[in-house]
Amino acid sequence: MTILRSRYPDLLKLVDPPLIVGGICRLCDYLTFPRDPYGCENCGSTSEELDSYEFSPTGSIQAVVTVHRHHNPQPEVPFNVAVINLSEGPLIKGIIEGNNPKVGSLVKGIIVTSKPDSEGISWADLRFRLV
Amino acid sequence: MAKNILTDNPVYVVGIGFHQYQRTSSQSYVSLGLAATREALKDAAIGWPSIEVAYTGTAMLGMGASRIMLSRLGATGIPMTQVENASASGSSAVAVASLEIASGRSDIALALGVDKQSGGLGAAPARAGINNLEAGAIVPFTHFALLASEYMHLHGTKPEQVAAVAFKNHRNGANNPYAQRQKHRSLEEIMSEPISGSLTRLQCCPVGEGAAAVILASDAGIKKLGIDKRRSVKILSSVTQTEGLYSPGEGIDAALTAETARLAFEQSSVEPSDIDVLEVHDAFSIEELLYAEALGITKPGETASLIQSGSLDIGGKCAISPSGGLLAMGHPIGPTGVGQVAEITRQLRGEAGVRQQPNAQTALAHMVGIGAVCVVHVLQKN
Ligand SMILES: [Zn+2]
Contact, B372 vs B89, CB < 8 A? Predict the structure, then answer.
């Protein structure tokens, strides 16, 4: 039997549609992705003041390129990478599935899974797809 | 605002030296560092016993690199300290050495940059315990390829115009005996071998090994040792900043450079239009466009056409990366920032031979480093 697990359980929630977990400062409302375990870069508050904040991984492409050379076998080249302006603010970078992503294209997060490993665990990663 | 103590306590570059930047080899870093230091001493026409303090910019050698090298010039017992600031380590070695002289504690200082890859711990930010979702798929060259994509989209710049930065810098490097890459490349060669986005292999800097050294002196030091003051170059300002929080849409890399440059110009009473020579952190071709504009030397979106017109070549309004820059001279990390100051000194002395920017009076050295940090020095002919 295959067990599905988030590769980054602190950052990626396997719900439908998926959610990514960043942080918000209780004192100044500053939003971050990823969540910062140490303190607020905006006001200096300690980690006790930082809550987790779930973002919907939707937004628009600010910049996009095709990667032709990569030091690891995964992801297989060529693959597309974009800077995504999340609807709720922060910028994140991610891998884009599908053809012809362009600056300004709207994207949403999807879950892709690896082939089950020897222990039957299939690892889930976040990718983006054109809306 | 921080006080510029260089205004009342002038600091001069009085000696420069290099070991050629090269691919990683079996040569010891000790011999690299010694070669650059000996050349700088010879250039200043002073002996090692005159050096009162030494700072070594290095990020990859590991602990305690200075004395094992420099004691081979004579174990004089002087204070020696390593300075690490990622890619800007050498620039920071120059920064603390100038502060040392300006403070009056020493009159003659060595700022040395030396490095070679040693398979050490690498960048601390990657070990800070802040995870990301990208699983290593977005490496530095892709970060800069994305900035290139954004720049080209914003300004309607074509990939071959970004590649023209590398064409210019490889051509300059071909005339620099200390450069790691000394080949004139055609635009076709530069545009081949794609790495990420529009960036190609020859639009990414080589990280090898090497050394660069500068000797700094106060007026008292120059007088005491009878150094030829006509060949000295004055450091007008030395400014270091780290990344702040910028407004959305402002690129972090350009915003950090703009803020550092603003302070450096303010403290030196020099305008961006006064800069005749710029040595810039062109680790990737796109960075030269971004930083020239952030420094205020060119206007947003116009740099590519200025490169096409030759106005940023040697002989143009401002020669950018006459050494070949990081793209052709190379980026051995520790030496890079020191090497920029050495190249600028050669230019401001009028001793750069075929690479000479005619009538160069004022110059700027700019490095950024992972973290992020930015270091800017403004220098002027004496
Ligand atoms: Zn806060």
Answer: no
Nearest to B235 by CA among B156, B353, B345: B345
Structural domain spans, chain B = 5-117+207-233, 140-177+235-377
Whole-model pTM: value is 0.97
At B343, list the tokens: 């190249």
Q: Which residues of chain B have pLDDT under 50?
A: none
Question: What pLDDT is attached to residue B145?
Answer: 97
- Whole-angstrom Cα distance, residue B185 to residue B191? 10
B156 at A interface, C-beta within 8 A:
no
Residues in chain A within 8 Å Cβ distance of B149: 63-65, 103
Distance B149 CA to ligand 1 centre (A): 32
B5-117+207-233 has CATH 3.40.47.10 classification: yes
pLDDT in tens, B2-12: 789 999 999 99
Residues 6+ apart with CB under 8 A from B125: B370, B371
Mutate to test the interface with B, among A45, A67, A79, A92 (most CBs of B within 10 A): A67
Which listed CATH number (2.40.70.10, 3.40.47.10, 3.40.50.2300, 1.10.3720.10) goes with B140-177+235-377? 3.40.47.10
Q: Do B135 and A36 touch (CB under 8 A)?
A: no
Taking residue B269's Cβ as centre, other Cβ atoms within 10 Å add up to 12
B111 C-beta neighbours (distance < 10 Å), count: 31
Question: Which residue of chain B has the CA closest to A22?
Answer: B132
Condensed to tens digits (0 to 9), the pLDDT of residues B245-256 reads 998 778 889 999
B142–A79: do the CB atoms touch at under 8 Å?
no
First and final CA of chain B: distance in angstroms? 27
For residue A124, give the amino acid letter: A
What is the distance in A from the centroid of ligand 1 to the CA of A50?
8
Residue B350 backbone phi and psi in degrees, to 5: 80, 30
Provide the ipTM. 0.94
Chain B stretch 280-319, residues whose beta carbon is closer than 8 A to a beta carbon of chain A = none
Q: Angle between the B285-294 and B159-173 helix axes, to the nearest 10 degrees? A: 90
Please list all protein residues whose beta carbon sits less than 5 angstroms from ligand 1, which is an ion. A 25, 27-28, 30, 40, 42-43, 45
